Amino acid sequence: MNDEYAPKLASWQDCLEKKSSIKVYKDISRARSLIETSLNRIKYINKDLNENTANFIFEDYYTSLLDLLEAITLLEGYKVLNHVCLGFYLKEILNREDLFRIFDELRFKRNSLVYYGKCMTFENAKLAINKSKVLITALENLLKEIQH
C-alpha cells in the first residue's frame, strides 16, 4: 500500500469510485493471518527504545496497526489499496472520527519518515509509539466486535 501516488481522495465514496477500495468477498482466513502477523510483530518489536531505535520501532507499530485495519476491512468485504482510504473507512464506515484523527496523524509521520527521510525526534517518536499502541488496542476491540 503506497498512498504517495494515490489519486486525490476526499472521502470513502471517492475511494470506491476511483477503485482505491473495492468490494470483495469477505476473506476470513486472510484477515486471521493479518491479525496473527500483527500481534506477533508487536510481541517481538525491539523493546530497547532509545534515540537510535525509536523511529524503527514506530514503523513496526504502524505496520502492525495497518495489518489490523486491513483485517477489519477484509472481514467487512473490502480490499483497500492505500492508507488514505483506510483512514476514510475508519472515519466514515466505522464512524470513528477519534481513531481517524490518530491514524491520520500517524500516517503523516510515517510517510514523512519513509518517503522523505524525515526522522522524528526521540520525544516525538515516543509519542507516536504511544498513540500507535492506543490505536492498536482500539482496533483489537473493533475486531472483537466484528468477529462476534
Q: Could you please describe the fold and organization of this structure?
A:
Helix 3 crosses helix 4 (83-93). The chain is 69% helix and 4% strand. By secondary structure, the chain is mostly helical. It has a two-stranded antiparallel ribbon. The chain starts with 11 loop residues before the first helix and ends with a helix.
What are the main properties of this structure?
148 residues; mainly alpha; Four Helix Bundle (Hemerythrin (Met), subunit A); two-stranded antiparallel sheet
List the helices and strands and how they pair.
Layout: H1 12-17, E1 21-23, H2 28-44, H3 54-75, E2 78-80, H4 83-93, H5 97-116, H6 122-147
Antiparallel strand pairs: 1-2
Helix pairs in contact: 2-3, 3-4, 3-5, 3-6, 4-5, 5-6
CATH architecture: Up-down Bundle
Distance between the termini: 28 Å
What is the share of helical residues?
A: 55-70%
Count of helix runs: 6
- Let me know the CATH homologous superfamily: Nucleotidyltransferases  domain 2
Briefly say what this structure is.
By secondary structure, this protein is mainly alpha-helical.
